[in-house]
Amino acid sequence: MPTGVAIRDVREQLFDAADRILLRDGPSALTSRALTAEAGCAKGVLHRHFDDFDDFLAQYVLDRVDQMAPQAAALRELAGTATVGGNLTDALSAVFQSVAVAIVALLTFRDELRARLRQKWPAGIPVLTEAAIMIGSYLRAEQDVGRIARGADPDTLAAVLIGSAHLLYADRTGASPETDAVRRLVDGILAPVTAGGRP
Fold first, then answer.
1. Are residues 76 and 148 located together in one domain of the fold?
2. Per the database record, which ranges form the HTH tetR-type domain (predicted)?
3. By C-alpha distance, which of 53, 128, 75, 76 is closest to 98?
4. pTM to 2 decimals?
């Protein structure tokens, strides 16, 4: 690897390599050796930038959570446009067709990683919790424009949407669910709290 490469570039190179391994081979395949081979760098590079492999994994997960912020902002901007169901179908599909499902499996697979993340993320599973916050924020914005009933609880609805969508996408080895299946799930959950029962 050339000298003088910025630390952020090295981190992103390693994080992107972790994405590829998780999506292609699953959490059991994500080892330090596989990571550096996938990233095309020497093993020493990993240890120069991270305390150990679990430190790398913790920083990787938190980085992927941080990357959801622009998606959350864009979703909030959609309040009052198109349909609530369509907006949420697209948002849920984007979350679960990303590396999010594989990260949830990784967190389940590695006890030490969960313990490290608890220092900065005291409750919940980081990727799914952040996705639920994003969905809840959007639903509150839709409440403000009158497309979600005032008596609805956006945070509870968001948790139900995230949990239900995760069940659709949980089989990493199978085909992703069709958009229509995600839309039916969204519409079924939101029907009681939308005008006329139609999101």
1. yes
2. 8-68
3. 128
4. 0.83
